Fold:
Amino acid sequence: MSKKRFNRRDFLKTLGITGAAAGAGLVLPRTILSEHAQKQIFEASTAHAAEKNGGQSYDVKPGQLDPYYGFWSGGHSGEVRIMGVPSMRQLHRIPVFCMDVGSGYGITNESKKLLKGTFVGDTHHVHGSYVNGTYDGKWLFVNDKGNNRVARIRMDYMETDAIVNIPNAQGMHGTFPQRYPKTEWVVTNTEFQVPVPNDASNKANFNKPQNYYGMHTILDAATMGIVCQIMLDENVDLAACDYQGKYSMSTSYNPEKGVTLAEYLAADSDYLIVFHWERIRAALKAGKYKTISGVRVLDGRKGSDLTLRIPVPKNPHGINISPDGKYGVCSGKVSPTCSVVELAKIDEAFAGKIKPEKCVVAQPEIGLGPLHTTFDGRGNAITSVFIDSTNVKWNLDRAVKGEKKPHVHVLDISYQVGHIMATMAETKEADGKWLVSLNKISKDRFLNVGPLKPENEQLIDLTGEKLVIVKDEPAYIEPHDVIMVRRDLVESKVKHRYNMADHPMAVHKNEIVRKGNDVIVRMTANAPVYGFQEVKVKKGNKVTFYVTNHDEITDLSHGFNISNYNVNFVVSPYQTKSVTFTADKPGVHWIYCTNFCHALHLEMRMRLIVEV
Ligand code: K7E
Ligand code: CUA
Structure:
């Protein structure tokens, strides 16, 4: 193995910490990277130490199933991925905000209705719906930072079933479902401040950043309608809900309303903003809102009794709540500290009995660039530290007792970690088995595949005192965040076939309906034949195909590709999909099944004849 694994100059460039950022107090990282790398290689090559360490095996043998479902956001691929943990096998990809030509998402009429023509998306945070502080296996919620949307995925079919566009806001980021008693609300934050409303009617404010605002938006989980928005003077970043159904909270920065890098970094202290749900409900009831872009907007700026601002240093990033519901941990990002907020004190602070800053009960120094924190359910927190390229395990009680460095173990990872997550860690059932470190940069850890390199996801055994890397996995753009859910909470809810009644347009009888210029073909797919062997249309006809898969056999999906017409989709057992296009190219166009289904799969085809 090459000794020179990592070029330091390259690394510093990677960080891009020059000019304004350096001036703003960012310190250069530890510079013994090649030593890090060496140690890393050693740790990875002694992965079996993990079995000594905690005794759990990461080896999922052929035919065995993983004990955890991992739900990965796909970053600017716009999708969500399902992985098996600990095998790290990619099991499925769920297109959400993007087009997927394999499944036909973005091509079929049903998916076009969800996407409304927008298929650029940036998924950061995926979270499951809750009952009593743990996952109920019903829904996943995921944000789109790219185009201000939040989507819901129904977990019985593992497909996107609702997308809501959020007005008055931009850069939907931190997104979190209510944890207790169950998920009725979902909150989502705007990373970017914009004029409100952000349209021509408000053009007077386009060039006045002092009149831009951030929003904490509350969605109704069941209807995916917007309950209300709370207007703020800050950029609101990550979000969390408590374990009591009383509060949501968000890290925030840029109360100075800057629009340049130096300006965002000007203030030394920013806030964890806590939102008081009971008061929000009361304010809505009392009509204390303005309706802007059709949404009820409440004022949560300084002085509002709906919000509490707990000062934390500096441009804080992640806010994560310990599984016992006691503490919120704000990761400092530009400060090397994590701020531990005791949630019980928030009541007193809202009641005016203590100052908001008294909610912070510890501020340990974790490392350079702490971003996100997760938990092992045994009193330890693990924080991702971006600039140091480490995962730091530290003890919450020791921190609260005043230890400045309550470290248990520091693990070097490769390299530049963003999110980390432990199994079940965002629930009260955190079990401390596995940790995943989603590292932004893989450098030289995999075969060179050109300038766009994979990212690196590292699987870490969490059962021992030390963190031990057991697996390195490359990943395509751009796994951002993840939750890992115990298999028993999901598996029994996931269906093998659709309920035909869920699709009102399901085809039971093959027919062709011609109405003026419209041709509607309603057709079954049943291995190895489609309901028709040929369909004749006239050039210029508007043609719609409805296809229902009548095979009830598990795992027997059919494809539907129309040659020359830029159409392909897949229909799974008992599913119905449709597509509409103008028959503008005369000729014979074979429609064929793209998804292997039968010994006569290749023969599963028919002609579309476009006559002139
Ligand atoms: Cu840290 Cu979008 Cu979750 Cu990036 S955010 S890392
Ligand atoms: Cu149907 Cu292949």
In short: Confidence is low (pLDDT under 50) at residues 1-34, 44-51. The radius of gyration is 26 Å. The CA atoms of residues 341 and 412 lie 27 Å apart.
